[in-house]
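For consistency, the fold was encoded as C-alpha cells, which produced the following:
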Amino acid sequence: MKKIPPLRVNYDALSQKLEFSVDRTVLGTGTDSNFNSFTVFGSDEAQETNNLGIPARDDATDGLIRGGERFLLALLLLRAQS
C-alpha cells in the first residue's frame, strides 16, 4: 500500500525558496488530528536561519493549514561547483 505524506516540501526555483504545504484533508480542521497551523524550524543550536533558510525556533512563524496555502522560507541559493 502506497502512503502519501500529508506534508510536502518543494523548491520554488523562481523565488529560490523552500516551500512547505500541508494536505488539509489529512491534518486540517475537521480531521482526526484537527490541526489548524504548523511551524517549520531548525535545530535549537541554529542562530537565526540555517543554510537551507529554515529559521531557528525563536524566529519561526506559524503557517495556517487551509486550502492551497504555502509556507515559504528564507532565500535559498543553490549553486553547482565543478
